[in-house]
């Protein structure tokens, strides 16, 4: 532990310029955030012309009729327009908040709020909670009409919306309530660990964040998810038999098999699993069950179980821990730099003892261009995992000595095509746009890879004969 802290101290020494050099941090945050937003807008403008193509990629030509392809293109075009406008609007609002010192204003409002109840500025955690509530309210106001437009205009136009106005408002209130019930204690504990551990907070805070992630894995599906969707045991039948048999053969620790009423809000389809290492649950959207044959859904689940087999969630968790450690390791240099807060219009009195929540929020803004690069790297890693899970599905007959699964790759291909047709997914994708935004390979890439895996396996089988 002493070695860790000595290395962290050496890093802080290298970052000491944060507290000494006269840097206009507000200008840099404005420049960085606008740079990221303009780059994302550029990617949308690269992608947009592809929505004018009149025919699908050659590998998909036999699977998409003209009507389905046209609908997909129109949906993609409308989503691109919406993303471009909302991205620029959100950035303009964030930029205005920075320019007019709204963060310092929110901190002062938080201080006045707790003072009304007899608490002074020495109660930093209480003021931080009030500060977070003020910022949440301010940022939520413009997002509500945008979310409503996306749901009731964009998604409605293309036949996906199943949400009623009442359900929309109810979901909004539920999400706010959950954010308050979980977010406020989390933030309070987060700040308490900072204060309790002092400059040696990094390992303690990482342990706290890891514990919180594990707790959320337990309570989200059992407490939070049922507030929005109904999870029912999957009915007896071919799909349940296939799924349980597949899980048993792979020794997947399946505890519950659910069908979720995703059609309550949208006609989009999906399937996923969750749970602790010794107790897993599989959830299948009712829309997927309705739109795909049981053997195709089984292929989708084989892909999902491929993620479990190759420990992809665990690997991503480890990567996220390294990411979090890096952020926390750099943070003390900004926490102990009064002029850092002064650059964002905070008073001298506040800047002398920078509030942890404020310094951390502004520090996150400084990291925006770095986070964009890290996002591309994580997408690259995620796509490798997706290909590995696809390959697992193709090779599952060899792993289980189950010749009845020899066509699993073909079934997965059909299921992916069905999902893309029903979800009106984009077929033509710019490579740079995909690298930045997509955690999954494109349908064209996945189908080509599945064909290659199947051909390689069939070739190996013939060679053995």
How much is the radius of gyration in Å? Answer: 25 Å
Compute the separation of the termini in Å: 58 Å
Strand content: under 5%
Query: Which residue ranges are poorly predicted, with pLDDT under 50 across at least 5 consecutive positions?
Result: none
SSE order, as H and E?
HHHHHHHHEHEEEHHHHHHHHHHH
> How many DSSP H or I helices?
20
Instruction: Tell me, briefly, the overall form.
Output: globular
**Beta-strand segment tally:** 4
The chain-level mean pLDDT equals 89
Derived from helix and strand composition plus strand pairing, the structural class reads: mainly alpha
Sheet with most strands: strand arrangement: 1-2-4-3
Query: Helical proportion?
Result: over 70%
The largest β sheet comes out as: 4 strands, mixed
